[in-house]
Design goal:
Its EC number is 2.7.4.8. Belongs to the guanylate kinase family. It is an enzyme of class 2 (transferase). This protein is of the alpha/beta class and about 160 residues long. It folds into two domains: about 70 residues, Guanylate Kinase phosphate binding domain (2-Layer Sandwich); about 70 residues, 3-Layer(aba) Sandwich (Rossmann fold). About 40% of the residues lie in helices and about 20% in strands. The strands form three sheets. The protein has a four-stranded mixed beta sheet. It has a two-stranded parallel ribbon with strand order 1-6. Strand 4 and strand 5 form a beta hairpin. About 10% of the residues are buried. The protein binds adenosine-5'-triphosphate (ATP) and ligand LQESDW3C. The site of adenosine-5'-triphosphate has 9 residues, from helix 4 and helix 6.
Length: about 160
Amino acid sequence: MWLSVSATTRSPRPGEVDGLHYRFVSHEEFDRLVAAGEMLEWAVVHGQNRYGTPRGPVEDKIRAGVPVLLEIDLQGARQVREAVQTMDGLDACFVFLAPPSFAELERRLVGRGTESAEERERRLATARVELAAESEFDVTIVNDEVHRATDELMSVMGVPALTR
Ligand SMILES: Nc1ncnc2c1ncn2[C@@H]1O[C@H](COP(=O)(O)OP(=O)(O)OP(=O)(O)O)[C@@H](O)[C@H]1O
Ligand SMILES: Nc1nc2c(ncn2[C@@H]2O[C@H](COP(=O)(O)O)[C@@H](O)[C@H]2O)c(=O)[nH]1
């Protein structure tokens, strides 16, 4: 399994590494990637920053027969659903990763401590919109205990559970 590294115009949080967590790019570079058709999908997420999936590495992995995981928002998932329909023989499964409850989602976001109260409210508003779209997805996995949820995701993807 290969986890795609997204490009984003968001600034890195402490501890985030360019090329590992994201490719942190300027607005100009993001514009260039979009104009050159190098994004499989992209969206403005939480009404603020742009995030997108670089097309090349995903296509390389698919050609090599490696299952690819995209961790993207609802708008991106809708774009990928459209794109997949035009790609012969490609199989995609759309997984909705749900929090155990809205209160727990809020508690975790507060615990992460990376946003201002205003920014957090924006993210919670996005979460409400996304939770309302759960039925668009093929499978829901509840992110209660991280290792259990990861194992369930690996099972959906048909790959052996990660060794820990
Ligand atoms: N299963 C879990 N158990 C406990 N804490 C979790 C679990 N999953 C995620 N968290 C914590 O919740 C916080 C938010 O998770 P994450 O950073 O993955 O956000 P996100 O889903 O990408 O949401 P956003 O789009 O707002 O960033 C993080 O501090 C993360 O460590
Ligand atoms: N459409 C896309 N959405 C993406 C991509 N990478 C991440 N995301 C979404 O953004 C939020 C916010 O991320 P954060 O790192 O600022 O907390 C994340 O939860 C995803 O839903 C992408 O490539 N395309």
